[in-house]
Amino acid sequence: MTRTIKPTTAWWCLTPFLSPKQIIEASASIGYAGIEFAPRDQWDAIVDAGLRIVCVRGHNDYIDGLCDPTQHDRAEAEILSNLELARQYDIPHLVCFTGERRGIDDATGMANTVAALRRVAPAAEEAGVVLALELLNSKVDHPDYLCDHTAWGVEAITAVDSPAVKLLYDIYHMQIMEGDIMRTINANHQHFGHYHLAGNPGRNDPDEIQEICYPPILDAIEATGFTGYMGMEYLPSGDPIASLEKAYRLFAD
Prior knowledge:
eight-stranded parallel beta barrel; 8 strands
């Protein structure tokens, strides 16, 4: 079967193994729909190859983020600038981050994050771009990151109350933090604008030797009516192109 979810490659995961030209050529030849987080100087080559630039960062970075009010002016300026580029290049998502807590409690961090997103939500709505607040794990990869549980993220974007503000539900990160992936997707899918995957443990291939069984998870996502993108944000084991080819077969058996 061919799935309605459209898989994409993640630039940063492939740069240790492939040149920019190889990343673009492999993504296109295998059948991926687009590329995520590519540097600005590669955008024209990606588009010329028939691929979509599916998401880039809305602001820098995931450490100094929206939960810190001293970062709001900078983040707003960066997001507004990137919204103009997103219009120009037809980029559907800008990824946003709460940043690290640094002593900020959950309630204060949420209020600060909501305030920051409300400042830019009208511009995102006008541009037709989704600001995707990413869920990251704080247990293994991103110590002290604030938006590390689905319930917290859902509450925050519900408070923003904009169709242009959603969550980026990263299955790898949320498997580490809370598990219960399929039930969470079924209960909260209306708040998810984009998805990422990787194998756990190790953030490697989404294959049969790691603990997440992806085919039924993809079935569950499709059952919600989702037809958007799934970022293959994993570090390939072995030959990277062979790995990408095998991972693509999750979507086109």
